[in-house]
Amino acid sequence: MIQLYTWGTPNGKKVSIMLEELELSYEVHPVNLTQRDQFKPEYLAINPNNKIPAIIDDDGPGGKPFTLFESGAILMYLAERSRMLWPTDMRQRYMVIQWLMFQMGGVGPMFGQANYFHRLEEKVPYAIARFHNEARRLYGVLNNQLGRQEYLAGEYSIADIATYPWVWRHEMHQVKLEEYPNVKRWYDRISRRPAVQRGMEIPKR
């Protein structure tokens, strides 16, 4: 059984989608960020970086419980554990890792900042412009890649699972998907996946 510690953010939804796609048994432990649950000692014992998500695999490597944080690492672990959404061919596997790192290092941080500065009551025009323009640039990179193939690394993979919940928030980035038709086509296709629909509902409130 997987113990999932999460909240309703894009990073949290990555892992619930992944667990649903893999059809693994898991229990949800909401970490309410608005109530600062992430700073409670019992959660810091699981994730010392006070972020979500985190997991505990009760039947981890060697049959012992295994605790893991950082959403990208969790996706890689679950993919390798289940041997699904994780290519065996080395070249293809690193294409998946490449686009996963693109999400972790670019899409997540930049989309998050674009959202933050758009919502900030005290407007900072330079920051709004900087992160909005960078978000649009990254949408353009995604659009170009998805114009060449159906999914980011060829076949549906953890790279798509990692990126989808961030694009789900496109309205918060002040971005219209119609301006990026390949991203919209990809987004709509993934939105129809039953496992994605279930995973996006986690945690239930």
Gist of the model:
By secondary structure, the chain is of the alpha+beta class. The protein has eight helices and four strands. The protein is globular, with a radius of gyration of 17 Å.
- Computed over alpha carbons, the radius of gyration is 17 Å
Question: Could you give the order of the helices and strands?
Answer: EHEHEEHHHHHH
Beta content comes to 5-15%
Could you tell me the number of beta strands? 4
Q: Provide mean pLDDT, rounded.
A: 95
> What is the overall number of helices?
8
Query: Biggest β-sheet: count, sense, barrel?
Result: 4 strands, mixed
Contiguous low-pLDDT stretches (5 residues minimum) are none
Name the strands of the widest sheet in spatial order: 2-1-3-4
Report the principal-axis shape: globular
